[in-house]
Amino acid sequence: MRHILILGAGTAGTVMANRLSRRLRSQLRAGRINITVIDPDPTHLYQPGLLFIPFQESFRERITRDRAPTLDRDVRLVAAEIAAMDPDHDTVTLADGTVMSYDLCIVATGARLVPEETEGMMGPGWRESVHEFYSLEGAEKLGYALHCFVGGKLVINVVEMPIKCPVAPLEFAFLADAYFTNCGIRDKVEITYATPLDGAFTKPTAAQSLSYLLEQKGIRLETEFNTGRIETTSPAWETAATSTEPRPPAGELVSWDERRIPFDLLVTVPVHKGAAFIATAAGLGDAMDFVMVDPHTLQSQRKANIFALGDAANCPTSKAGSVAHFQAEVLEENIVRMLDGRALEPGFDGHANCFIETGHRKALLIDFNYDTEPLPGMFPYAWGPVPLLKESRLNHLGKLAFRHAYWNRLLPGRDFPGIEAQMKRSGKRMPAAVGS
């Protein structure tokens, strides 16, 4: 019997397990192959929903489900922490000392937040005047802070790339603008977006096309801001709105070159790293503990029988749920090829797409890959119905509807009509060739 071990049961691991289980059904039931998934958390979290929790537009019960039912019945789930991995001996050691062997291993352990990497982040202001929304607890605590916020300086900061869902911090800024407008205190709130990039968006074309949104909403942009530390004093957002006394800021965000941005409420995106156990396997991960893979086959550079996908892989594309889905489609075929002794297909082109909430019940959609930046046009077909790089109510409704599609189509590992793993050019307005 050949043993396929999948590490992690988040989006990528669950999609991968379900696709392989369906593809290899006859071999699984004949006892020639088994699939085991290891994950310590009994709850599956719909991570895109975290964005809406601080604004009371979603809640815990809507974005979490028991993990076991999300996996195919022919997949074995082991609830345990992973302590170490030994690629030379094809084994994984669990926190309780159990050693599990594999013939083929798929790493899908995602990305973890490491706020302790930034000096002062977890100091006296943590979860008081300094918040994050990339965890369920963090998003809920931030919701309370926003409810209590009476005005002042709101700073949204990305400490370092890469991060999960690179557009989420921008979405937060846009939703904050709408939230405070609806609360009637937008004129009392100064919003600043501080990023280590040279523009608001990771893709230059999108940055050029969409920069008007920041100007339109009165959001100050601070680029090439490399966060060095956070200095906090007191949770100034608790100060009563009727107070006439001048109040000091709750703290300052300080860059490595000593640029300072004062804040009353800081919404930060902490440093992201891969799973800690990846560092136990020399040569498996990069400096941030993301698994080094061939960007097209998703095969580990460390050993041929190891693969990685989703946030755990160091592919130069967005760490987003759509990427995990497209990668799983390609990786499913390559796993079958490896089991059959055939050559792998370099089929992943870096395809990613995501809705970007822009506030006031509107959103836009971007679709791109390794070689092509986001372009205007229509999606998923040449006739649409969804516009690209353009704000619309339809895009907002599409983002809301995706939660249903996530639980009922993406996680079970089923394809979406009209949306393929490789990015399609049809419907997009391609840039003119140089010299044409």
Folded structure, characterized:
The strands form eight sheets. A five-stranded parallel β-sheet has the order 5-2-1-9-20. It has a five-stranded parallel β-sheet with strand order 11-18-12-13-14. The chain has 436 residues and is an alpha/beta fold. The protein contains nine helices and 24 strands.
Q: Round the Cα radius of gyration to an integer and report it.
A: 22 Å
CATH fold call of the largest domain: FAD/NAD(P)-binding domain
| Number of structural units classed as domains | 3
Assign the CATH class of the largest domain: Alpha Beta
Strand order of the largest sheet: 5-2-1-9-20
The biggest sheet, with number of strands, parallel, antiparallel or mixed sense and barrel status, is: 5 strands, parallel
Low-confidence stretches: 236-242
Please outline the helices and strands.
Blueprint (H helix, E strand, L loop, with lengths): L1 E6 L3 H13 L1 H5 L3 E6 L4 E3 L14 H4 E3 L9 E3 L3 E5 L4 E4 L4 E3 L2 E4 L4 E2 L16 E2 L4 H13 L3 E7 L9 H16 L5 E6 L9 H7 L1 H5 L2 E4 L4 E6 L18 E5 L4 E4 L1 E5 L2 E2 L32 E3 L12 H20 L11 E8 L2 E7 L8 E5 L2 E5 L4 H18 L26
Parallel strand pairs: 1-2, 1-9, 2-5, 9-20, 11-18, 12-13, 12-18, 13-14
Antiparallel strand pairs: 3-4, 6-7, 7-8, 10-19, 15-16, 16-17, 21-22, 23-24
Task: Describe the structure in brief.
The protein is α/β, with parallel strands linked by helices. 23% of the residues lie in helices and 25% in strands. The protein starts with a strand and ends in a 26-residue tail after the last helix.
Descriptive tags:
436 residues, alpha/beta, FAD/NAD(P)-binding domain, 3 domains, 5-stranded parallel sheet, 9 helices, 24 strands
